[in-house]
Amino acid sequence: MLLSRFPRLRFAHLPTPLEPMPNLSRLLGGPALYIKRDDCTGLATGGNKTRKLEFLMADALAKGADTILTQGALQSNHARQTVAAATRLGLACELLFEKRVKGPDDDYLRSGNVFLDRLYGARTREYPADTDMNKALEEVAEEVRKKGGKPYVVPGGGSNPVGALGYVNCAIELVTQANDMGLRIDRVVHATGSAGTQAGLVTGLEAIRSGIPVLGIGVRAPRAKQEENVYRLCQATAEFLGVKGAVARETVVANSDYVGGGYGVPTEGMIEAVKLTARHEAILLDPVYSGKAMAGLIDLVRKGEFKGSETVVFLHTGGSVGLFAYLRAFERALN
Ligand SMILES: *Cc1c(COP(=O)(O)O)cnc(C)c1O
C-alpha cells in the first residue's frame, strides 16, 4: 500500500510514541497495557484529527481553496485542530458549532477548546442542537463562494476517505513500531465517534493483514449504528485506497456501553478513568472521548475480557484541553 500516492502535508509530530503503562497494568492486574500517544501529534496540543488533516489540507490546497469550513460540538477538538492547521497554511477558517451538550456551564462555554479557537482567531457560528450541520456547512460554503472565495468543506471529525488515510498511516506506523520493539499486539482499543479513526485504522490493519483486532468504544451512537457508520467508511476508504473488499464486516467492532447519559455527558467511569490514568501514569485523558474509552477498557479488564498474557494498546486520541471545560464534573472526585 503506497500512501505517498495521495497528497499529504507534514505538520503532525510523527511517529507518536508507543509506550508501556506499567503502573496501570499492575494496578488492574490484567493484560500488559500500552499506549499509542496520538495526543502528542503536536498541532495545537495535538490529537487524532491532526493525522486526518495532513491529507485533508493537502486536498484543500490541491483544489485551490482559500477558506476551510468545518463543524462540531462547541468543545470540538476537531475544530480546534482544523483552525490551527488552516492558520499554519494561511487559510481562512469558519467553524460551525452545534450546541449539542445540554445545560453547559461557563467553563464549557468559554474554556478549553473554545478559548483556543478564539486565540487562533477562528470565525465561529453557533446552531441549536439537532441542526442538519452538513446542510449548514453547504450554506456557509455558498456564502463564501458568493463573496468570491474558494471554500473547502471538511466534514465533522474529518471523517471521509481522505481524512481516514491519516489512520491508515497510523496503522502502518503502529505495526512498524510493534515489529521494531518485538511487541505482539493482541488488541487496539480507542474512542470512536465520527468513525474516521476506527475506519482508517481497521482498513489499514486489515489491508496489511496485521491480524490485530480493533475495539472502538462509542461515545455517542448505539453499537449497531456506530458499527454501520464505521463499516461504511471502511468500505469507501478501502476502495479509495485501491484495496476494495479488504475489510470484512466482522472486523468492525464497537462497544457503546460507556456512553452514559449521552455525548459529552460525564460518567462516573470516565471520572475514575481520567483520575487513575493521571495518578498512575501521569497521562491526561479527556472527558468526552479518551476518558470514556479508558473507562471501557478498565471495565473490560476487570471483567476478564483479556488474558493476563495479552498485550492491549490504548490509542490515546487526545483532547485533554477539554478537561478545563469540565472542572465542575471533577470537583467532587478530587476531594
Ligand atoms: C474526534 C475524537 C475522537 C473520535 O474520533 P473519530 O475519528 O471522530 O471517531 C476520539 N477522541 C478525541 C479526543 C477526539 O477529538
What does this structure look like?
This protein is 43% helix and 16% strand. It contains twelve helices and ten strands. The strands form two sheets. Strands 1-2-10-7-8-9 form a six-stranded mixed beta sheet, with helices on both faces. A four-stranded parallel beta sheet has the order 5-4-3-6. The longest helix is centred in the middle third of the chain and has 21 residues, at 161-181. It is globular, with a radius of gyration of 19 Å. The mean pLDDT is 97. The protein binds pyridoxal-5'-phosphate. The site of pyridoxal-5'-phosphate has 20 residues, from α3, β7 and α8.
Summed up, what is this model?
With 335 residues, the chain is of the alpha/beta class. The chain has helices spanning 22-28, 49-62, 77-88, 106-110, 112-119, 133-146, 161-181, 196-207, 223-241, 268-281, 290-302, 327-331; strands at 18-20, 32-37, 67-73, 92-99, 123-128, 151-153, 187-192, 214-218, 254-255, 311-316.
Provide key terms for this protein.
single chain, 335 residues, alpha/beta, 6-stranded mixed sheet, 10 strands, globular, binds pyridoxal-5'-phosphate
Per DSSP, the total helix count is 12
Give helix % range.
40-55%
The distinct ligands, each listed once, are: pyridoxal-5'-phosphate
Structural class: alpha/beta
- Based on DSSP secondary structure assignment, what is the total number of beta strands? 10
Radius of gyration: 19 Å
| Poorly predicted runs of 5 or more residues | none
- Mean of residue pLDDT? 97
N→C terminal distance: 51 Å
Strand order of the largest sheet: 1-2-10-7-8-9
Dominant shape: globular
Largest beta-sheet characterization: 6 strands, mixed
Order of helices and strands: EHEHEHEHHEHEHEHEHEHHEH
Portion in strands: 15-25%
